[in-house]
Please model this.
Amino acid sequence: MTDDLRPSDEPSTNIDPAIDVEVEAEALGRVPDASAQDGRTASLWGDAWRQLRRRPVFVISATIIVILVIISLWPGLFATHDPRDCNLIDSLLLPSSEHWFGTDLQGCDYYSRTLYGTRVSITIGIVVVFFITLIAIIGGSIAGYYGRAVDSIIGRITDIWFVIPTILGGIVILSLVRTRGITTVSLVLIVLGWATLLRLVRSSVLAVKANDYVEAARAMGASNFRIIVRHILPNALAPVIIVSAINVGVIIAAEAALSFLGVGLQLPAISWGLMISVAQQRIISAPHLLLFPGAFLSVTVFSFILMGDALRDALDPKLR
Amino acid sequence: MTETIARSDKLAGRPIDPNAPFLEVRDLNVEFRIEDGIVRAVNGLSYTLGQGETLAILGESGSGKSVSAQAVMGILDTPPGFVTAGTVKFRGVDLLAKNKKGTFDHVVPEVRGSRIAMVFQDALTALNPVFTVGWQLGEMLRKHRGYSKKDAKEGAIELMERVKIPSARERVNSYPHEFSGGMRQRVMIAMALSLDPDVLIADEPTTALDVTVQAQIMELLSELQAETGTGLILITHDLAVVAEVADRVVVMYAGMRMEVGEIQAVYHRPSHPYTLGLMKSLARHDMHVERLTPIAGSPPDLLHIPTGCPFHPRCPYAKDICSTEIPSLDAVGGGHASACHFWQEVQIEI
Amino acid sequence: MRSESNAGEPILVVKDLVKHFPITRGIIFKRKIGTVKAVDGVSFELHPGETLALVGESGCGKTTTARTILRLDEPTSGEAYFQGRDIFAMSRSELRDLRSEITVIFQDPYASLNPRMTVGNIIGEPWSIHGGVPRAQRKRRIQELLEVVGLNPNHINRYPHQFSGGQRQRIGVARALAVEPKIIICDEPVSALDVSVQAQVVNLLEDIQDEFGVAYLFIAHDLAVVRHIADRVAVMYLGKIVEEGDEYQVYDDTAHPYSQALLSAVPVPDPVGREARSRILLEGDVPSPANPPSGCRFRTRCWKAQEVCAVDPPELIDRGQGHPVACYFPQVEFAREIPTETRHLDTPE
Model:
């Protein structure tokens, strides 16, 4: 074919004069296509990625998140002290060259503690959102795809779950549990948090299901599994990705809130929420106790929300 | 009927010229400025419309036909759409004025609805679903003519009867979704005609309708037009509908005029390869056709309109000059003109 | 169009097909409050290599008929046989095999292709489901198919959004053709395309039929395209076939009042004679398929309706016109003017 020998940015104006136009007419319109770039992926994901890369919002939030994840995996690389190596003599020191963030009530290096707190937050954030998303995708696809009775049942269960407010429910459940580690808190957050996302997946699946290409797959004899996995989910997931990114921030904030209220993680766990809780009483005399975990918490949550925004800009217009 | 209010001979403070055509569009250029570049949607469109006349703007998707109507009405989405050149005159009154940025704004909003009205393709999305049909019809009368609520309701019923909606009195309180497609279209026509406009622009008014309903609606439009002397601009891609109702036709492609003229002249002596190609590619229900002759290729990407004549990549008559020089509209005779370098070669008798 | 179809054993036989949709109300437990009688007793035969068109306006049941034959919707009653095998008695795996013998081309070129799959994967998907082409040969076969439908074989890894509407429809044709079906159901394949492109796709479908001998069940509302491409035409109204025959019988010797009204409503792309052209204008709207008139369904809008029409629905049989008509008072109108000039629209060299 002579078409593809032409460089990709040449306008698609002239049909190769060597092709007899009568023959061309008979060949039923083999017109070179100007919009495609040979050699570059033109998939919707590829396009979205290229768009994302260019946006400062994405670059900034992605950088922050990557740094936070690295800190959470290897906090020892960045910490100056062992966060549990506490000396009562050094209690409540203000920031100095030795203790960059000062020390807390027990005389532990606050900078190192704050860094270690990242681990808890990021872990809970990502793990909880991972499982919520998994449950939502499975439940939402089944409800949206199969409809009728299955949809009604799942829908009613979801409705009941909606009634329970997240923080309040968390408080009630967690206050009944004696020992609360990361697993317990994560589990509670998962249990409380899947309903909204499931609804979203379901409506996204319903919207995608209405497209002819789904019907075409059915008419082709595709199994339900194939249709869901190959046709529906790839097209339904965009809004889910966006919301999940934001949800990481939301869950991190939720854990901090629960720990702050005293029903989340317990000592000796290192959590920003716990640190802030203790810091409350000494705001005037030792403001650094509130400042640093507060700042880290804010920046962390904010960066995930920003990430969600950036994803929305890149994924949304491509998807309809 | 809604009283024919004595029309003042001023529009927005400017005098109406009784001898001027109802609508005169000259060298209209509209472009869309989007992230990927500039889309030249309309490129040098000109036409006139007289009283009681039916002008058809014939074109496929991307021809610019709908965008040009939006620019005339002043409902163009700005940004990203901008009128970059041209004049639009309603009975001698200029509707466009140049602004500081070099583009043109539509400066006579009073003309919308009361002098120039528009009917759209999909009545279901053009009508507000949360208000009754009677309320929407009445709103035109209340807002523009100062009718009371009671009079507006009576006026709405009259309008519905005028467009032959059965049981108008009972159905005036129904919602748009409770009507069938054809009935909804009648409601839209009723709304368009409620203020006795001089010009009615119908943008693909029957494309979404069944063929028997289409016939009813086109018949209705003809009758109403004969009654009121309204000028009708019919925007469509359907050559057959154009042949049935139009007095004159403008064939558009990639924002430019390809061929213009009276309906008989254009249909029986097509003088442009595009017009000819469209006709040859049609199947017919009233005669046997052995093989269709399509137009090769696809409608152009408006971000990259071909140089020279925009149709040349698909044209069986194209020669070298066609890719370099934009053809001007050459007179074929008697108001019939073709924008083709070789129209004499192309023209055939049918 | 083709004047000979392979007569002989029909490959698709449909008898008294009925599809009713229940209208339900209720949130948890749905109560049936009515039925939409979308298809109400449709019978026809399709022969190998032939094109049978189901024509009618919206709500006539033509699309539902096709879907029900394929069991995309389960039938309420009736029979359908493919090559003698009872479609409605097939097991799930037999049904899946059927879907490689009867394939579908859809109307909307923008919605019928998965935007996240490459064109090659879209066309090759039937093989992933049904087998038949080993992985190693797939690329070549796909490229062959792309050529057959007039697309550039090097575009195999492009995505649908990089193609125009007409090109996407060709991709749909290639996909339908991939498993070498005996029948392709064409559901309004050109309605959503630009006029200048419609003829390309129509010609493509004809060429494919000539080359591969596929039969088409062609569903459309565009009467001109149908006349051109179909060997036989069945006119549908409110779930029933009212008239059936070949192009000349249905279009020139039209006998059923609805068909006559329908054909007279189609505009003619010729301004000459438009004043004189008589048009039968039907009053009002199509009755609701949930509440169709008793007896002959068309009687509420028919100018010939008499008492007998309200009692028993007329059968679809030949009443002397030479083709089946479902009317008690069919009459071929000879008043149609035959255009004296055929079209002289040949491109000069």
In short: The CA atoms of residues 96 and 106 of chain B lie 5 Å apart. Residues 1-6 of chain B have pLDDT under 50 and may be disordered. Chain B touches chain C through 59 residues (CB under 8 Å). Chain B has two domains: 21-115+199-210+230-350, 122-196.
